[in-house]
Specification:
about 270 residues; alpha/beta; Rossmann fold; globular
Length: about 270
Amino acid sequence: MNSEKEIKEMVKEKYGAIAGQSKQQNQSSCCGSGCGCSNVEFSVMAEDYAKLPGYVPDADLALGCGLPTEFAQIKSGDTVVDLGSGAGNDCFIARADAGDYGRVIGIDMTEAMIEKAKVNAAKLGFNNVEFRHGDIDNMPIDNNTADVVVSNCVMNLIPNKQKAFYETFRIMKSGGHFSISDIVLQGTLPDDLRREAALYAGCIAGAVQKDEYIQIIKESGFKNIMIQKERKIDIPEEILEKFLMPDLLSKLKNNNVGIYSITVYAEKP
């Protein structure tokens, strides 16, 4: 897992398989992300979307780590872009806020997720929600398109986060803003743990330090950055020991790594 191409292909393969699973199957796998721990009966990262207007159960695969659309301040008529849109969960909730005169575009690198999202949209009869296949670090979207960008536990999966945030800046209108939920770290994750494919697809090994994450956003040109929500993620040992050898599990404990879900807001000047 040394090259960006290898990491992207691994993530695409993992999430392509997840696209064929139900929310219940994903919740019974480690981190709610299909990592292969199929007998664990809970998800530790996902939050409950059911209370939000526009919620579509068929589009909820329990793959997120926050509720970015709840904090995104979407207004009627806005154009919203969802980065890593999966089966369409955040897009449909964003559409409830943007209304009939708004527009919602979902971007995902996994073909199977795009197809699943399109099926869900067709069932709902929406004509102002679309899904495009593409990478977040090279989006098939014109400059100055989005009033609002949302994303849920996806940036950590992208090897070149700086490029992904530059792209986010490019597609946003001046005065636009984003609300992004993601996983960040406090404390050092050992290199051999970062090489674990299951940890990467499960949103841990691709995460960076919280301060580094905020700095990347600043360097991409965004202003008025603030953390809207922060939540510590405690991954039970019975999950980790399913796919980590004892020596790696011991390293994780000894390094006192804190894993956090944050929802970050920022504006394009």
